[in-house]
Every structure is written in structure tokens, then in C-alpha cells.
Amino acid sequence: MTLRIGDTAPDFEADTTTGRIRFHQWLGDSWGVLFSHPKDFTPVCTTELGYMARIKPDFDKRNVKIIGLSVDPVGNHAKWADDIKETQGYAPNYPMIGDPDLKVAKLYEMLPAELSGTSEGRTPADNQTVRTVFVIGPDKKIKLILVYPMTTGRNFDEVLRVIDSLQLTAKHKVATPVNWKQGEDVIIAGSVSDEDARKQYPSGWKAPRPYIRIVPQPK
Question: Model confidence over 123-145: pLDDT tens digits?
């Protein structure tokens, strides 16, 4: 089975740098971002973890919890955090999951379920598929999946932009156009009839085509 948008995010128990958690319980009523790494002490991931720590307040104000995962023991994460602080200016200020038995990586289909063994002796290249971002809603459903190659750093500003869209469109019957940012015009969802749209938008809308109904972002 392949995880898809709309599926329930698999629940799990795991050790983290802030103690043992059960994932769904830890999320509670918050949104969540789970982002994974193929190995501790890898260069691109070091930059990513530091940047995520720097912009954590932007996630906090959106009621989004951040949690990282690396296919190594929690003890290694603590040592890596020192390097991240020294080189990036920020140490991880969110939990990092230790996954030495590869359980979570397999559960989220980042490694083959039939793979045997542990993280011991595995290289970053062996785990290169463990570079995924999952955005999960308060309903525990997967809202976004992004998979990156090892040589390309992730854009977490884009993840914030997508979360703004997800939270807006979860509340209002609208969609966001290409490159949309908070505060810009949106599109009335196709599921809304013109009759119902007139009740919600009595001032009308711009329509370069009948199926593209543009309105200001709802408050």
C-alpha cells in the first residue's frame, strides 16, 4: 500500500530527543510537520535542521508542531545538535525521532517494509529515500507529501506557504492559485455554485473564464 494525500498518518511510538512519544497523542489538536533525514551528520540535513529551528516561531503561530526523524539513535541526535548550533546558529528546538530499527521509516514507506537489519552500518546513500516532508492535519490525515533528493536542500518557506493555503481552504470553500501568498486573491472552489457564491460574495467576483472566479481572500 502506498501512502497518499487523505490517508490517515500512521501512528507509532518512538524515542525522541524530548522523551518517548505516541505520535497521534503528541500531535493532539495541532497540525504537524514530520520531516525525515537519511543519516545524522550529513551536510544538507544539517542546514535544514538549523533553518527549521530558526523559523519554528512561524510554525508555532500557525498551530503547527514540528518533529524530525533521522535513521540513527537518539544519542547521536544530541551530538549532532551541537554541530547544528555551531554551524547554523540554531540547534533543533523540536523533537527528533530516533529510528535505529527503521520502524518509522518503513511505516511511512520511506524504506521497503521487507528491509532487514538496523541503522547500524547503513550509509546515507542506503537511506537516501528517507528525505520526505509530511504535513498532517488535526484530523491526522496526510495533507501534503514532498520527497527530495539528497543533494537538494528543502524549502521550508514553501512548506509554510502550503500550510497557509491548507488552513485557509480547510475553513473556506476556496482554492489558492499559482504562487499564492497570504493575503492575495483566491479562487472560489468549483464545488460552489454561482447561486451559493453570490450569497457569500454579494459584491461578485472577477471571472476571466466562467470556471475561474476570483475573490479577495476571506478573513
Answer: 999 999 999 999 999 999 999 99
